[in-house]
Fold Transcriptional regulator, AlpA family.
Amino acid sequence: MLKPHKLRSPLRRADAIPPAETHDAIATVATLSAAADLDPVDLALAPMIADAQTSVPALLTPAQTAELLGVGVKTLERWRSTGDGPRFVKLSPGTVRYRAVDLNQFVAQRIKANTLP
């Protein structure tokens, strides 16, 4: 779980960012840049959060990701080594995170209408 005291700025509600269908990413960044309380990191993450249209954190731990996908953490580790799972961010040698947009894309690519390959 994210600890508020470890964040650069307080958590923002997902509905504080305009929906992607009413604003494109450039307009979203332009709108948000007018707000004086946002730092450059928040501005860089704004389009990704707007595209994800979700209230989950921008970067998820493997445990959070496993819970969302309904798989085990070991399964995510195996997928990372074989390249079968969702795209991930390697922040340091021992720190892996997942972006919400990559999880949405991973799930969307696996939607099937029948059992044929």
